[in-house]
Write a structure and sequence with these properties.
The chain has 350 residues and is α+β, with helices and mostly antiparallel strands. 31% of the residues lie in helices and 25% in strands. The relative contact order is 0.18.
Length: 350
Amino acid sequence: MGHRTPARTSIKGTQAHGLLASLPLTETDRRIISHLQQDGRRTFAAIAQDIGVTEKTVRTRARALLDQKVIEIVALVSPVALGYSVSALAAITIDSPALGSRISDALARIDTIDYVVLTYSRYAIFAEIIARDMQELQTTIETEIGAIEGITGVELFPYFSLHYQQARIIDTGSEGDDGVRDIELGATDKAIASQLSLDGRMPFSAVADHLDVSEGQIRQRVQAMIENRQLQIMAILNPLKLLDRTMAWIAIKVSSDTRLRQVADALSTMPDISYVAICAGRFDIFAEAITTTQSGLLDLVETKVRPLRGIRDAEVFIYANLHYKRLLPVHLKDRTGTPHNEPIHSIYES
């Protein structure tokens, strides 16, 4: 597109921000998070009754978890519903493993990048790009990623479909295949999802006032989206910060006689698979796995993933570190990625 080659951005003075740090959680914290991952709008009274503490304790701990950014309660939805038409995974090679954390930190500061993984493998880093359009994607690659010193190559895997998302992490008893699917939303549903992506516990009355519709219509549409697997309202958190999780990208090549959606559907039924993207490039599918141990990851790959009909090859990239940002609706972000009117999570009962 005629961009000038940018000056390389030096990372020598950049301090790594410790993307992985210890995160001590009490058993009460974990049980509260577990409930909020199943249903981010569950009342504190119901949670308190189930786990055997007072409602005040649940409310206080939930507020602390939100204020400390341990969790965020959001509406999990397809990026398209928030105004983004293009997604891709960038697989990045670097000069030296010693630069990995600093380059990851620099990548995480780019507006269009919402997810950065450090792996120390054939690709040192994976960065997920969520863009408004193809021009913004190209600008990200050429003028922002390309400007970071120490990067030696970028292989891009554009998504055909973000097929499946399931962000449950803590002991929820999920049976799999109950995550968000890449299903188109109507205009009203997109507007509702956009509001709840800022604060999943926002009162429906406030959403109704903002959109100038009835509160009953909001409740009805939210319930319909949840039932249709177009939306989940839940607490999200960085799994690696729990210090008892193993995560990996599983890059999959599918044989030519097998439909990609068939394999993606089969992967989506596995409780340890949290994310499935069908993409273009040398790999056909990227699936994110979250297990409690590395042996559990090995068992998943050997006994469930590789034996699937149609899988020709699978390569595993274990996460050494992870950074992610909550995806805001496109109309609330400026070109530098700073959200207008940064929302504060409520703890309203609704």
